[in-house]
Structure formats: C-alpha cells, structure tokens
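Narrative of activities, Objective 1.

The group set out to show that a structural description can be obtained from nothing but a protein's sequence at a throughput compatible with the screening campaign. Below is one input-output pair from the validation batch, recorded exactly as produced.
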Amino acid sequence: MRKYLILIIIIFSTSSFAGGLEEQLTWNYQCTTAKDRCWLEKLVTYSTSKGDKTGGVAVAYDNKNQKPMFITVWAIKGLPIKSEILIRFLDSVQENREWKLKPADDGFISIPIMECDKESCTAKVYPEIKTSADSRLNLFEELKKRRFMWVGFKLDGKEYSYMVPVSGINKALEEIKK
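Output recorded for this entry:
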C-alpha cells in the first residue's frame, strides 16, 4: 500500500495537465433523445513503456430516476480477466500555503476486470460496493464529493497508474438535468 501512495504523490507532482482548468474538470456526456439515460465520462492520457494510453472513468446514469446504473473504469489492454484494478479517492488540501493530496479514509478499493477488447480492459461496478465484511461504499457519491480518483493495476510485473480529476462530474450532472 505504501508503494502505491508514493506512486500517487510522484504522479501528481510530475504530471502536467494540458489545457486550462476548465478543460481538466469537464466531463463529456451523451444522452438518449429523451434524455432519460446518459453516459458521462472523464478520460485522461497516461504514459507507459508502450506509448501513451487512455484511461478514465464513466457513469451510466438514469436521468429519469436521478441515479447511477453502473460505473466503468478503464485499464491497459492485456490484463487477465478477474485481475484487479485498484482505485483510491483523494482530495486536495492546503497546508502552509501549499496544496497537497490527501487520500480519503476509504483506503484502496479493488475492482475486478470484467472484459477486455483490442484497446483496453474495463472494470464495471455498481454504485455501492462492499469494502469489508461489514462496510459498504457508494462509489458514485465518492465521485461527486472528491477531487481525484487514482487508478492502479499491474501487467507483466509492471505497475501502471493514472489520476482522474473527478470533481467536474457535478457540473455535468446539472447540465444533463436541463
């Protein structure tokens, strides 16, 4: 776990986001003609030894009933089915006039890979998941209240990870309600 925390700090401190702040926070979305169901997504590019890859998170949203149907997280292609993607939510906090990342108290959350195609592998999860024998976590609510989501996975003994700025989902949800 400590290795992943160090990796989170390195990625955040060395990554440079292209574009302005508004672009970084903007989620893309598409809705059916009746706007009863929508697909919201936030994609990011991350570098690997095999070149740049796209990762991200998406929410299938029932706009009529105002609730998520499921959440999808992407990883690099080639992961074995039922291997795991780790995610962790983070907030940015200001300490002594410096901004730092603070991991949420939920710890790392493991989500199994469900399918792979020629481009990527995906983990699909319903909004509320069991995190321990007696604890549950609503991932959709975490997306709405946190600033970042860290995603990590292993392929051929190498660790890969990326960060997704998730705080823009609330603006996208307001836009699809119109």
